[in-house]
Structures are given as C-alpha cells and as structure tokens.
Amino acid sequence: IYNFPCPLLSNGSGNTIRELDLLGCAFHPTVGIGCTRSLTSLCLSCVNIESDELGFLLSNSLALERLELKDCSEIISIKIPSLLQRLSYLMVFRCPMLQVIESKAPNISSFHYFHDDDDVDQQLQLFLGESLQMKEIFISHSCVLHYALAVLTSSMPNLERLTMHSYYEMVSTPTVASKFLHLKYLNIYLFRWNFASTYLYADYDIFSLVSFLDASPCLETFHLDAPMRRREHDSIFEDPPSQLGRIPGQCYANLRHVKITKFRSTKLLVKLTCHILDSTPSLECLTLDITDGGPTCSELDRCFVGKETYMEAPKALAAIQTYIEGKVPSTAKLNVVEPCSRCPACPLT
C-alpha cells in the first residue's frame, strides 16, 4: 500500500489547500501537517487511516465544510468536534470496522450513511445530537425505521427529506408522540439484493408504516419500495379482509404523490394503500409499480423482470382492480406499471 508522504504538506506547503481527495493509500497525519488551515473539503476513499489520526486531522480543520469517508477499513469510530462550525455535509460509505459515529458539529444539514448489508449483526452507535440545521438524511442500515421514529423525530425537528434503506427490521414500526414537523419527502426501501433474504420480513407488519405518515403532517411525497418476496398464503385473495379503509381521525392533508414499487397482492400492502387513499384528500398521483422497479424496454433492449414477479403480476393487477381502483378519487391519477408483455421473465431468477 502506498504511504502518502505527509511531509509534503508540512512546513506551510499545504496551507492553501482547500480540497484534499485521497484514494487507495495509507494516510497517517501527524502534528506537523500543515494542510488543514484552509481545508474545506476532505474525501478519503479506500484509505488506511486510524480513528485517532482522523480525529486529530478533524480537530485541526476548522474551515471544513464537507467530509466524505468511503471504504476506510481501519476506522472504528468517527468523532466530530463542536469546533467544526462550518461542516454542513457528512457522508460515510461502507467502512466495515466502524462502530460509532458521534457528531457535535452544530450545522450539519445533510448526512448520508451507507452500511454493507452483508453483515446484518454489526450494529452502529449513531449519535448526531440535536441539529436544528439538519435538512436531509439518508441511512442504509438494519432496524433504521425503528431508530428514525424513536430518535430522529425529537432530535431533528427541521428535517425535510428522509431516505431509509432497511434490510432487516426486528419489530414492527412503533407509534410515537413526537413528529417530523417539516418533513416533505419520505423514501422507504425494504429490500436486499441477497436472495437468501427471503424471510427477513416474514413477520414485519408493513401496515405499521402508517406511523411515519401519522408523524409527518407536512409530508408531500411518499415512496415505498416493498419487500420483493411475500410469505406463503398472505395474498389478499387467499384470506380476504372483512374491511379495508381509513383509521378514524387520521388525515394526511398535504400528501400529493405516493409511489409503491414491487407492489404485490399481500393483504397488508393492499390495506396500507387503501388507508392512504381514504385518508388523503389532497392526493394528485398514485403510482403502483408491480415490477421489480428495474430497467424497462424504453431504457434497455429488454425488461429485466424476475420470474417470481412475472408470476405474481396478474394477482397484483387483480388486487388493484378489485380493491384499489374504486377508491381513487376523480381528482387523482392512478398509474399502474406492469411487466412488459413482450418480454419474458429473466430465466436466472
């Protein structure tokens, strides 16, 4: 591994550097490093740097505005001091040994964290403190839905955009008293690329996601990417519900655009969709995508639709026609995205 020569940045030679982007090397800053005075952007990708060395570098970079750490395998903890008053963007991508992120920087407005879903058991301790400036959060991690409602509603009062990739939820989403008072855009992805994940959501109550809608009075756009596979015998046609409809007292007055990708004929998913329709007087567009959400013929030479999706599509379409179409108000548009009839299912799935 190439060891970046830190003396190149010492003795005042690095005082004017505003952006430092290192890829594929070892970087061990010492007391004599002089590039931090004017540094506003720091990006380390596949860089061997230890936690205390990163801490030293950050504590001397008071002008830092943007920090990106990607695939840094030796970092165990990231501690950002309150002295970084200008730091507004923090992104951490797939650092396999990372256990703790603790930020005391008061003006971070955008936070992105991506965890490698191959290790479900590795848990991250995340302490973002109370940030009145936080506007956008993207988190990919297990149990992130529970964390968002339990922690973020009270600590991020001015959050406007929230995107969550959750590949495992141990319990259904809780109901909380706190609210996302300014949240306008909510994106929830409940899927994994690993085919071994068939039953990760077997016991998850997807209807419990109404807790997010109830906690977001200003929500305008909601996108749900549902689990790719459903349990056996949970089709709405195998166990028809006695009733589908609105929970009394709930109203999503600002919600205008709703999209559900990987829509299936499961009872709870149909129930969630009907509840949204019955509780959203301002709805303008409902999109139900019964494909896998991948490329289509208009983008590539052929559609890539899994065999299971292709087999489920007629049931999903029937569920839409039977339970959902009649609830769509005349002021709203219903878009149904179906597998292309001229493209067979991908033989590899």
Tell me what portion of residues adopts beta-strand conformation: 15-25%
Total strand segments: 15
Which residues sit in consecutive blocks of at least 5 with pLDDT less than 50? 193-199
Number of helices: 5
Which quaternary structure do these chains form? single chain
Organism: Aegilops tauschii subsp. strangulata (Goatgrass)
Pfam families: LRR_At1g61320_AtMIF1
Protein name: At1g61320/AtMIF1 LRR domain-containing protein
Structure notes:
- Helix content is 16%, strand content 22%.
- It has 349 residues and is α/β, with parallel strands linked by helices.
- It has one domain.
- Helix 1 (51-59) links the parallel strand 2 and strand 3 (66-70).
- It is elongated, with a radius of gyration of 23 Å.
In short:
The chain contains 5 helices and 15 strands.
Give the topology:
Layout: E1 19-26, E2 41-48, H1 51-59, E3 66-70, E4 77-80, E5 89-93, E6 100-103, E7 110-114, E8 125-127, E9 136-140, H2 144-155, E10 161-165, E11 185-189, H3 210-214, E12 221-225, E13 257-261, H4 267-279, E14 285-289, H5 307-324, E15 333-337
Helix pairs in contact: 4-5
Organism: Aegilops tauschii subsp. strangulata (Goatgrass)
Protein name: At1g61320/AtMIF1 LRR domain-containing protein
Domain At1g61320/AtMIF1 LRR: 2-341
Can you tag this structure with a few keywords?
349 residues; alpha/beta; twelve-stranded parallel β-sheet; three-stranded parallel β-sheet; 16% helix; elongated
